Amino acid sequence: MTDRTFERIEALFDIASFADVKVLVAGCGSGGANVALQLVMSGIRNFTLIDNDIVGPENVIRHVCGRRYIGQKKVEAVADVLLDRNSKAEITKIDADIMTYPGLTAAIANADVVVMATDNEPSRYTINEICVGKQVPFVVGRVFTRGIGGEVFAYRPGGPCLACLEAALQRTPFRQGIKEIELVSEEEREKVYGMEIAEIKDSPGLTVDITFITAFHTRYVLDSIARRIPERPKFLDLIDENYLIWGNRPVHPFNKHFQLQRISLSQQDQCAVCASRECSP
């Protein structure tokens, strides 16, 4: 019997071009799992999932895994959801803490792109440093307090890394607590955002709010893939900007519903991670 799984989207781009692409999903929470689901429905077949958490009752209202997965490891549950959409998917499941997993560097080096979806700064910086060292692109997505908006940043080898973004926002490399946007000077506000920025702490919002960010996150991952495969898929034009901020509703610092900012961030000369490395575009 002919496999008709992707016949409705085959006209958009050649699914076969994604056949050998390897995606590492670091963090299988509501963000990472949603991105993985969108990717498998876009034709991606090879995944490595890393997480050491389990699905709890409090997760199902936002997670792609429903109540029947409560008590299961997230890597197992997410893998099952992905296989339900494409039974031909090849999934490696790593039930481990990203910060202590000894095979993290090798797993990243083996990937074509990393979906950075962890919920803490130390793990993000660890992945950032490995990706820069191994010249593996990553995309990170973060949701702001109460789901008022979020941001997506793509590291492209040879360009600015996550530490460059942090430096541009006057952040310190490792902060106490998780603050997705901190108070910055008026000059930096105008330079980086062109809008006022309040201190916004990381906390989940409604699924509909999170889904906007995961959609952008997924599209940037596909952009990273398109930059690495021999022939770019049809109708998947490259994205010029590497940083995007999205506001769901008019809550400070946003002043209207569905507010979008596109930014081309440059590499920071004093970046301790990427400025001292030999990076080729």
What's the CATH H-level superfamily name of the domain at 15-156 and 202-245?
NAD(P)-binding Rossmann-like Domain
Looking at the structure, the CATH topology of the domain at 15-156 and 202-245 is Rossmann fold
**Most strands sheet:** 8 strands, mixed
Helix and strand run: EHEHEHEHEEHEHEHEE
Spatial order of the strands forming the largest sheet: 3-2-1-4-5-6-9-10
* Unreliable stretches: 171-186, 188-202
The helix content, as a percent range, equals 25-40%
Mean of pLDDT:
85
Strand content: 15-25%
| Radius of gyration of CA atoms, rounded to a whole number | 18 Å
Number of strands: 10
* Overall SS class: alpha/beta
CATH architecture of the domain at 15-156 and 202-245: 3-Layer(aba) Sandwich
State the name of the first-level CATH class of the domain at 15-156 and 202-245.
Answer: Alpha Beta
Shape: globular
Oligomer: single chain
The N- to C-terminal Cα distance equals 44 Å
User: So how many helices?
Assistant: 7
Structure commentary:
This protein has 281 residues and is of the alpha/beta class. It has a domain at 15-156 and 202-245: Rossmann fold, CATH 3.40.50.720. The chain is 28% helix and 17% strand. The chain is built from 7 helices and 10 strands. It has helices at residues 30-40, 74-85, 104-109, 121-134, 162-168, 186-193, 207-226, and strands at residues 22-26, 46-51, 90-95, 113-116, 138-143, 149-155, 179-181, 200-201, 243-247, 259-263. The strands form 2 sheets. The chain has an 8-stranded mixed sheet with strand order 3-2-1-4-5-6-9-10, with helices on both faces. A two-stranded antiparallel ribbon has the order 7-8. Helix 1 runs parallel beside helix 2 and helix 1 (30-40) crosses helix 7. It is globular. 40% of the residues are buried. Residues 171-186 and 188-202 have low confidence and may be disordered.
